[in-house]
Automatic annotation (TrEMBL):
Role of this protein: Acts both as a biotin--[acetyl-CoA-carboxylase] ligase and a repressor.
Listed name of the protein: Bifunctional ligase/repressor BirA
Gene name in the database record: birA
Organism domain of life: Bacteria
UniProt-recorded Gene Ontology molecular function terms: biotin--[biotin carboxyl-carrier protein] ligase activity
Binding-site positions, biotin: Q118, R122, G123, R124, K189
Residue ranges for the DNA-binding region feature of this UniProt entry: 23-42
Length: 325
């Protein structure tokens, strides 16, 4: 059985949006026999796709499995490039590791790695990232922007704005951003973003944007270390959310905002980021490796650097820190 045909057939039924498609029509469109169509349908049903078959009308898709495999994500994807190459794993150590390996093989801009679970998911500052099976979105996106190295941190902010827009669109929730990359619901973290780089003398070869989004966890799915500071979209909304729609929406906004950024520069992104930020204008404590600073978070620069004014009137540029408010 050809998996590509099976996946395309799943996509065709998804696009039909609940309307029946006849076996003959599918056979004609795919250039295969009706018996072959039936075999692909059986294969999809075994994978968890709910497909009813009504005599003289055809096949109707009534439910799809809650999986992030390409067949479930790609048919309704509204992007031009992002997500068109998609590597799906049921388990891996970290999607960042896989993405770094793929990036060296010259895969295209917008290649996506998704895994149902990570056994060694990693966060900023070498922290571990809880990645329970099937509960969240553990995704790394390989981008190849033609920008100078020092502008790379701006992509963390582009990614943050994209994820917030996607959460708003798919769930109706209204998250905030805590500098630089934490997405919060009622002060608790529902998403973290980790941006890593591959570069050489010619500049950036790849940006690997890792997104960890807590979608459908219950409280007991979080480890004791993060229970008090983490939340999921389901916990806040009170009902499960569609991981598939979220992935599609994140990729849509990431592609859109990256295009705006490349055409018009960082100003428009910065404006959106500031609109979602809980950090700017507030008193904060910035914990860094060697020192801790307290003051008012005044603004971010065009490079995404946080500006904190301390009580002595001095302005400090913060590149990387844990912010407490
Ligand atoms: C943070 O510390 O806030 C960043 C967390 C980033 C987690 C994501 S999950 C997908 C990708 N793979 C990883 O191992 N980390 C990132």
């Amino acid at each position: 059985m050809n998996i590509i045909v099976t996946n395309k057939l799943a996509g065709r039924l998804m696009e039909a949006d609940g309307e029946p498609v006849s076996g003959q029509q599918l056979a004609d469109e795919f250039g295969i026999s009706r018996t072959a169509v039936w075999k692909h349908i059986k294969d999809l049903q075994e994978k968890g796709y709910e497909i009813s078959s009504i005599k003289k009308k055809g096949y109707t898709l009534t439910g799809i499995p809650d999986s992030l495999e390409a067949a479930a994500i790609q048919p309704l994807l509204k992007t031009v490039r992002y997500g068109k190459t998609l590597e799906y794993l049921s388990s891996c150590e970290s999607t960042q590791i896989i993405a770094h390996q793929l990036a060296q093989q010259l895969v295209p801009d917008g290649t996506v790695v998704l895994s149902e679970e990570q056994t060694a998911g990693r966060g900023r500052m070498a922290r571990k990232w809880d990645s329970a099976h099937g509960k969240g979105i553990w995704m790394s996106i390989i981008l190849r922007p033609d920008i100078p190295l020092q502008r790379a941190p701006q992509f963390t902010l582009i990614a943050a704005v994209s994820v917030v827009r996607a959460i708003e669109e798919v769930t109706g929730l209204n998250p905030d951003i805590k500098w630089p990359n934490d997405i919060l619901l009622n002060g608790k973290k529902c998403t973290g973003i980790l941006t890593e780089l591959q570069s050489d003398a010619d500049g950036i070869q790849a940006l690997i944007i890792g997104i960890g989004l807590n979608a459908n966890q219950e409280m007991e799915d979080f480890s004791d270390e993060v229970k008090d500071i983490a939340t999921s979209l389901k916990l806040k909304k009170g009902s499960p959310v569609s991981r598939q729609e979220l992935v599609r929406s994140i990729l849509y906004y990431l592609e859109l905002y990256t295009a705006i950024y490349i055409d018009e520069g960082f100003a428009a992104i910065k404006l959106m980021w500031e609109g979602y930020s809980t950090t700017i204008g507030k008193p904060v404590r910035a914990r860094m490796a060697k020192e801790t600073l307290e003051g008012i978070a005044e603004s971010i620069t065009d490079e995404g650097v946080l500006q904190i004014r301390t009580p002595d009137g001095k302005l400090h540029g913060i590149y990387s820190a844990d912010i407490e408010m």
